[in-house]
Amino acid sequence: PTSFAVNLRPGAEQKVVFITARVHPGETPSSFVCQGIIDFLVSQHPIAKVLRDHLVFKIAPMLNPDGVYLGNYRCSLMGFDLNRHWANPSPWAHPTLHGVKQLIIEMYNNPKINLEFYIDIHAHSTMMNGFMYGNIFEDEERFQRQAVFPKLLCQNAEDFSYSSTSFNRDAVKAGTGRRFLGGLLNDTSYCYTLEVSFYSYVLGGPTSAVPYTEEAYMKLGRNVARTFLDYYRLNSLVERPLAPTPKTR
């Protein structure tokens, strides 16, 4: 039907943004950030409409439902830290990872699909603000391109810190979604861990810490979603008038 978004028409090429959250059950803020992303994307906001027309969002909001149900802090029902098993997830022991990984590989092998972003949402117990972890590449130009999204997010979200964002290849993190998929996907894909503080963010000086609320976490999610508008340079397609955007830092 003609009402279909351009990118959902049969045979159309799709740009996919894949988002996962709550692989560590105790990191509850990640669910609120993810909720903010989902609520914004399905809303009637003019930016959300443009994003739905040009991108496909695949979201797995809870990768560790059994761990969440049991009230575990880090592990699944069977005692696994799922975020160390991306390399070879078992359909029996790590079913959610296995399912998501199969879907990602399927999309990666489909010539009509460009899997452009993978973002895994976590919460951090010792750092303030929102920030990202990215991967290290030998190719300098790819490394520079990877910094674009967090820089744009920093302009949209007052609680997001680019100075806390880091790019690493720590051996301990080799089994994480970001590291494993960063090695699997090609150089047009960007894989990030989005971290947000359990407790507060800083505005202005180091003494002015603002406690996070559920609403503030969801606002960060909304700002993550709207940053794709800047990244893909779709601003000219948004119907005016626009809601006022937060001042850049």
Architecture overview:
This protein has a single domain (14-239), classed as Zn peptidases (Aminopeptidase). It is globular and about 50 Å long. It starts with 13 loop residues before the first strand and ends in an 18-residue tail after the last helix. With 249 residues, it is an alpha/beta fold. The protein contains eight helices and eight strands, in the order βααβααββααβαβββα. The strands form two sheets. It has a six-stranded mixed β-sheet with strand order 2-1-3-6-4-5, with helices on both faces. Strands 7-8 form a two-stranded antiparallel ribbon.
Summarize the structure.
The protein has one domain (14-239): Aminopeptidase (3-Layer(aba) Sandwich), CATH 3.40.630.10.
